[in-house]
Amino acid sequence: MNILVVRTDKLGDFITALPAIYALKHHNRAHHITVCVSALNEELAHSCDFIDRVVVDSGGTILQLAKDLKECKIDISFTLFSNTRVALAQALAQIPLRVAPATKMAQFLYTKRVKQRRSQVKMAEFEYNLKLIKSYFKDMDLNYPKPILSFDKQQIKKIYTEFTTSYNITKKVVAIHPGSGGSNDANLSEKEYVALVSQIRSLNRFETVMIFGPDEDNLRARYEELLNGQNIVFYSSKNGIVEFAKLIASFEYFISTSTGTYHLASAVGVKTITFFAPSLFASHRRWKAIGTLSDQVAYTLPKSINSIVESNFQN
Predict the structure, then answer these.
(1) Exposed end of the chain (fewer CB within 10 Å): N or C?
(2) Gap between the terminal Cα atoms of the chain
(3) By the 8 A CB rule, do 45 and 37 touch?
C-alpha cells in the first residue's frame, strides 16, 4: 500500500509526526511511506529510514503540488495538520482515501474525517497524530523506539570529537538555545539567560555552549556582547539540520524554550529543560516531546533561575 503522511509546518511539528510515520512503516513493512513536508524539513525526512519518499511543498501552485502527489500513486493519505492548500491538492491528485482531523472548512475535502478536538489538549500533539492513523489501522502497534532518530555511532563520535577539539571542551556539554524561531513567546529574558549561564558555569562541572540557528547571527552577536569575558562557547548551526542533530546527540542537556530544536534534542535522546507558556494551548501537556518522558524537565514561566539550577545541576 502506498501511504502519504502530510505535515507541512515547522520543525517541531514535523518531529511530532515521526512516531506515527514509524508506526505506519512497521505495521506492515510492505507499506511504501511518502511524506509531504515543507522545504525546512526535507533533509531530516530523507534521513529517516522509515520514510521511503519525500515530497516537498515548496510553496508553488496548488496544481503543481497536486501533480507531484499524483505521481506518487497514493492509496491513502493521513493529513496530521490540515489547511485548504494541502486538502485541495490531495483532492486534485485524486487520492482515493484521504483522512484528516475534523477541523476547519478544509475538512470537507477529505473522505474520512476524525473528531479529535485537539484544542482540548487531552493528549500531546504526537499522541493525537498516532490516534489519527490508528483510526484506520485499528490493530496498529503505537510503540516506537526512543530515541527515534538514530545515526551511525561512529559518525556521531567523529562529529562530537571534532567539535570538542575545536573548542577545547573537556567536560560534558550543557547547550543553551536562547532563540525561539518565532514559534513561542514564552522565553527567558536576556538577563535571565545570562544569569542561567553564569550559575551553571559556577558549578565547574559542565561546559556551557550557547547554540544559535543559521539565521540567528544578530542574536549570537548580542549574547557575545552580554557574556563578554566569561569564556563561553558560541556555536552557530550552519551545516544543516541532520548534522546539527548528530552533534547535539552527544550533549548532556539541551535548554531552550518550546521550539523545534527542543523536539529535535528529545528525538535524538538528549535530556531537555524547556520553558513553556502558562496556557494549555502552549503547555508541555500539548507539546510533550517524543523522547523518554523522564528525560524531559518542563517549566511554566515565570520561573526562578535559582530553582532551575538547584533542581537540575546541583547533585
Answers:
(1) C
(2) 51
(3) yes
